Amino acid sequence: MRPRVLIVDAGRLGDEPARLDAARSHHLVRVLRLRPGDTLECFDGRGARFEARLEHADPRGCTVRIGTHLPSDTESVLRIALLQCVSSSERMDWTIEKAVELGVREIHPLLSAHSPQRLDGERAKRRHAHWQRLVEAACMQCGRDLLPRVHEVRPLESRLAQGTRPEDTTPLMLLPGAADTLVDVALAGDRTIELLVGPESGFAEREVRHASDAGFRPVRLGPRTLRTETAGIAAIAAIQVLAGDFRR
């Protein structure tokens, strides 16, 4: 697999080479050790992939010549939105990275009653920017050309009060001891799945009630209680097997 780099609006450059910022340039030159003339792939974050060649190798600002449009088929037939209650830094980072690798389209970081972190103001902005960088790196690693959207941090209760959703949406809430499993849910077809996952200490009772009132169907993942960073990822993988990637 050739090295990959994100270049926004790559398809609109025409005959002009693309100039990369310092962070991406440093990665190509210092980390990957690419030299002028080396080939790579670039993607625009909206689903397009291109062949490219490194023209000028400078860790402060490379230039890349965009070439042929390449076929790309890395997206799931399902549109999975992960509604993840914020966990501790390393666990949240791991969850976001693996969710991108497994094909989610959107990530909603939510603050619940039992979330271990209180993110607001500048701290929330810094974490959001950090998560966006993780998403880009994960796409570079796993070969996706569509950048999943990371929404701004918001309270869980605010997200639950959002209102109506499209008819082709299946809202699910992971809840130990729930009566149903993922096998009991009709997941087939071109659908949006909203997957709500609690923090380390689980949901507060009122949050479970509000989520149920908002249409989220409680489902369990077998007889064991999983950690928050395991539960969401395991559920996404299971959903993809049941109705997503492995159904094509």
Give an overview of the whole structure.
The structure is a single chain. With 248 residues, the protein is α/β, with parallel strands linked by helices. It has two domains: 4-70, Ribosomal Protein L25, Chain P (Beta Barrel), CATH 2.40.240; 79-247, 3-Layer(aba) Sandwich (Alpha/beta knot), CATH 3.40.1280. The chain is 30% helix and 25% strand. It contains six helices and 13 strands. Strands 6, 7, 8, 9, 10, 11, 12 and 13 form an eight-stranded parallel β-sheet that branches. A five-stranded mixed β-sheet has the order 1-3-4-5-2. α3 (121-142) links the parallel β7 and β8. The longest helix is centred in the middle third of the chain and has 22 residues, at 121-142. The relative contact order is 0.15.
Keywords, please?
248 residues; alpha/beta; 13 strands; Ribosomal Protein L25, Chain P; 30% helix; Alpha/beta knot
Summarize the structure.
It is built from 6 helices and 13 strands. The protein has 248 residues and is of the alpha/beta class.
Portion in strands? 15-25%
The SSE string, one letter per element, is EEHEEEEHEHEEHEEEHEH
Number of domains: 2
Radius of gyration: 20 Å
Task: Count all strands and give the number.
Answer: 13
The outline comes out as elongated
Gross CATH architecture of the largest domain: 3-Layer(aba) Sandwich
Q: CATH first level of the largest domain: which class?
A: Alpha Beta
Please identify the structural class as seen in this structure.
alpha/beta
Q: Mean pLDDT, nearest integer? A: 92
Give the low-pLDDT segments: none
Q: Report on the biggest sheet.
A: 8 strands, parallel
Give the number of helices: 6
Distance between the termini: 23 Å
